Amino acid sequence: MDFGNNNNSKNRLPVLIIGGGISGLVLANVLQAQGVPYKVFERDLSPTSRSQGWAIGLDFGLAILKATIGPEKYDTLGKQTAVDSDHPERGAMTMVDGNANKRILMLSPPPNTDMFRINRTRLRAWLLKDIMEADCIVWNKIFESYTIIMTDKEKEDGSGKDHVIVEVTFTDGTTERGSILVGADGTNSHVCRQLIGSNLFEQTTLTSDVKNLASSYWIDQKFRDEIVESYGPAHVVAPGSGTEDEASTCMFFSLVDVNFSRKEAPYHMMWSMSYLDDDDDADDDDNNEKDNNKKNNNVYSLTTSTQQQSSQEKKNRQQQQQHDSEKLLKIAKARITRCGFSGPLLQLVMETPQNSNVGSLLFKERSPCSSLQEMASNTNNRIVLIGDSSHSMIQLCGSGGNHAIADACFLGSALASAYKKDEEKALEEAVYMFYKETIPRGQEAVVAAHKTADAFHGTRETVREYMNSILQQASSLATIDNTETHCWKKKMDPELLARYNNNNPKL
Ligand SMILES: Cc1cc2nc3c(=O)[nH]c(=O)nc-3n(C[C@H](O)[C@H](O)[C@H](O)COP(=O)(O)OP(=O)(O)OC[C@H]3O[C@@H](n4cnc5c(N)ncnc54)[C@H](O)[C@@H]3O)c2cc1C
C-alpha cells in the first residue's frame, strides 16, 4: 500500500507528532511506510545530544511491529540493535531467587517469535534512519500548546482539505498546522496536560514509592562467563531480602553492549536495584537526596534531555545531578550485602569501579483516565496520546516500551486507513477506535506493573507466591522448585493480537 501516490492524502495536512522517543518514532515509521504525511518535533538538540539509557527488553511489541512495518525493515532490527548483535535471539529474561542465588525460571518466547534485549542508542538510530532521510523530524522544538481551529467548510473547495485543523505552538514562538496532533512526549507529557487539564494531570500522575539505583561498567570475559553460567545471557531479575519479614530489594542486571575491540573488558553490563523508599538508608545526605527525588518530576533521571527543558525541569535535573555517585554506590553496596545476595549478583555491584556514575531514579505512574475518550472527542478527536504520555507505568514488567510500540502501530494503521478514505469523519473514527482499545489496555498495564512492583518488593513469602503464580501460568505442572522453565509472558495477549491482525491493513 503506497499512499504516496494517493492525491487525496497529499492534500491533507500532516500528522504532527510531538516527541521522538520510541512511540513517536515507531508511529513515524508506520506513517512513512504508508505514505501518510507527518512531521516529528523533538525537544532534543540532535539525535545524539542525550544519552538514551542502557537497554530495553522488547517482546510482544515486536510481533506487532513486524506485522505493521513489514518483514523487510523489521528483519534488520535484531542484528542492528540487539545488545549482543551477533546473538539477538539471546533476549530471554531470567528470574532468580536472590537469597538462594538460584535460577527459578527463564522467560523465553515461543518458536518463531522474537524477544530481544535492545541497546537503546542503536534502537533510536534504527528508528530514525528513514525519518531523517525523509527530512521529517525537527530537532530543538519544544511543544508548548495546541489550538483547535474550525475553518468554514462551505468555503473549502472540496479538494480534501481539512475542516478541523490543529495548530501547535512551540516554545520558540513558531507554529505548525496539521490534521491531527499526537502526543508522544512521554511521562511528563505537555500534550496530555493540556488535554486533560493540569489538575487532573497532577492528580493522576503519581510518584511510585519504588526507588531505583543504577550503574554500568565494562567487564571481562571471565566474569561474563560466570554470569551467563549462573543466570543466563541477557537480563536478570532477582528479589532478595535480609530477613523473612523484610521488604525485598529487587536486583536487576542486563547486558548493554558487546565490543571486542575493548580486549580487556568487552561486555558492558548495567545493574540496578529497586526498593521501597523507606528510611533504611536515612542519614542527612540521603534525606536530602530523597527530598530532591520527591520534587523531581522526571522519571528518566538518567536519560532525559539536558538542555532543552522547561526551567522547572532544568532545576529538578540540576538537583538530581547533585547526587554524589560515591554515596549512592555506598548505599547500594550496603543494601545488597544486607539483603543476603551472593554469587555474581553480589559481585557485579561490589566491583563497580569507584568512579562510576551511579544514578537514582523514581518512577511515575499514570493510568489513562476513563474520561480521556470524552476529552478527546471535545477536540473533534484531533488530539491523541500514545506511549508513556497516555499510560506511564513502573518498569518492572518491562511493558512500557512494548505498549508504546503497540500504540504507535495501532494508531499508525488506523490513520493510514483514514487518510486513504480522505474523509474527515474517518479520521475522527480512527481516533475514537484507537482510544477505545488503548485506554483499557493502558489501564490494565499500569495496574499490572504496579502489582508486579508490589510483589517484587514484598516479603520473601510474597515474592515466593508471586514467582509461583508465574510458574503456574507457565505450566500447570511447574513449581518453584523447578530450576528452569521456559514460558512466554502472559502479556502476549493472543486476543489482542488476533484483533489487531484482523484490522491491520495489509502492507
Ligand atoms: C529504567 C527503565 C527501564 C525500562 N525498561 C523497559 C523494558 O525493559 N521494556 C519495556 O517495554 N519498557 C521499558 N521501559 C519503559 C520504556 O522505556 C518507556 O515506556 C518508553 O520509552 C516510552 O516511550 P515514549 O515514546 O512513550 O516516551 P519517551 O521514550 O519518554 O519519549 C518521549 C520523547 O518526547 C520528547 N519530549 C518530551 N517533551 C517534549 C516536548 N514538550 N516537546 C518536544 N518533545 C518532547 C522527549 O525528549 C523524548 O524524546 C523502561 C523505562 C525505564 C525508565
Automatic annotation (TrEMBL):
Which parts of the sequence are annotated with region: Disordered? 281-325
Record flagged with keyword NADP:
no
Q: Which Gene3D superfamilies match?
A: FAD/NAD(P)-binding domain (3.50.50.60)
Q: Which domain of life is it from?
A: Eukaryota
Which terms are listed as keywords in the entry?
Answer: FAD, Flavoprotein, Monooxygenase, Oxidoreductase
Residue spans with biased composition (Low complexity)?
A: 295-311
Specify the FAD-binding domain's residue ranges: 13-53, 377-427
GO molecular function, a single term:
FAD binding
Q: Name one Pfam family in it.
A: FAD_binding_3
Q: Does the keyword Protease apply?
A: no
Against PANTHER family, the record matches this protein to: FAD-BINDING DOMAIN-CONTAINING PROTEIN (PTHR47178:SF6), MONOOXYGENASE, FAD-BINDING (PTHR47178)
Q: What is this protein called?
A: FAD-binding domain-containing protein
Source species: Circinella minor
